[in-house]
Amino acid sequence: MGNPRVRVVRRTLSMARHPRPSEEKPMSTPTKFLLDESRMPRHWYNIMADLPTPPAPPLHPGTLQPVGPDDLAPLFPMELILQEVSTEREIAIPEPVREVFKLWRPSPLVRAHRLEKMLGTPAKIYYKYEGVSPAGSHKPNTAIPQAWYNAQAGIRKLTTETGAGQWGSSLAFAGSLFDIDVQVFQVRVSYDQKPYRRALMETYGATCVASPSNLTNSGRAILAQNPDHPGSLGIAISEAVEIAATNDDTKYALGSVLNHVLMHQTIIGQEALLQLEMAGDDPDVIVGCTGGGSNFAGIAFPFIGQQLRGGGKTKQRRIVAVEPAACPSLTRGKFAYDFGDTAHLTPLTKMHTLGSTFTPPGFHAGGLRYHGMAPLVSHLKELNLIEATAYHQNACFEAGVMFARAEGIVPAPEANHAVKGAIVEALRCKAEGRSEVILFNLCGHGHFDMTAYMSYFAGKLTDQQYDEAELAMALSGLPSIPAGA
Ligand SMILES: Cc1ncc(COP(=O)(O)O)c(C=O)c1O
After folding, report:
1. Domain membership flag for residue 82
2. Atom 7 of ligand 1: nearest residue by CA position
3. What residue's CA is closest to ligand 1, atom 3?
4. Is residue 73 part of a domain?
5. pLDDT, position 1
């Protein structure tokens, strides 16, 4: 009886059997590993200091020369520009920012005892839970410092884009703390799917506009071609950048991709290092989902840094990035210079890209619908320091439902990709009889994403293939950069 999707999930769950209460043995090891506020990291970790070779520099699209601080000044305050190009290993987290972080940080590290039992795996699974932040994900880890540095520079207006709505609500929250007006361009498909995310942004005092919109030249140009365009992160970035670049009193904030954004997220991995030390474990595998790469970098970079500094004496871990099969920049993209946005207003960065004009299908992990990958994450992939894999959305929702029924937390659709990746690793350990330690980043909760779960249960989610012809066209339009530029 009932609908087919629920039956599929039940069948999968019956293969990975939940122990009955009478069989449940008391857990002999702790479940939560909590750090005292006083142990919250005092600096961000900058992986640039430890890389064997530096990543290719961003280029000015006009001159094809490396961009300098002055090129970025219309968009960002100088402190953030300096962080973007810094090679210092540690950058101090300002005390007022740490004070705000204390509202939810340090975030818990949890041993997923019940998921381990359900899967029957000898692996130990740990997850770092970032859904405890006010906005429900890792995004406030960078929204708070970005808003603070802007406020310090006297900025009172910020524009940004949002895919899932997580970043938009995080910057809206940060703006409310530092008296900054925030205007968010939300990708049309997610604007329509998630009215409560919009309401949350408005609750924090921000304004939220569906993108493409009529407020910008880039939005109007796209609407002229297709009035029902579903939008994309690349288009929403163009709109937000255009407003900031054409208004002296307005700057722009980006929720992922850039070096300083990834660095702000390293507080996650630094805490996890301390918490795993408390647990007496060291991860063999680290898993994170990747949209623009920030939560993945946040959990992974501090561990990769340890390896890079260890000169081969530190444990070499596998670091696995999980991306959506419908927007697979790391696994199917080209490593090339490309624009970060659709209207070509940003500098050119060398990254794994599907082409800046590529519009991914409208699947439910809106935060992962981006054509490119962070240059630093792309560089690590080229150095073979990380692996990448891709899954379709139904497999990820199935993993998320399994996780919810074992651990109680309903993950965000983006985070379901990391859950799926962790479960695949745990089942591999079961097949190989290995008791490895798996750490994954549960980067956000899905409380505003229940429509997506309802579609999943109703069997209405399709595993959409991206259009191969569109991908080929988008890749053929990559800018040509002369060798040595
Ligand atoms: C919960 C969640 N996870 C992941 C992402 C993807 O971004 P990133 O790869 O920068 O972590 C988003 C983006 O909006 C998100 O909201």
Report:
1. no
2. 291
3. 414
4. no
5. 44
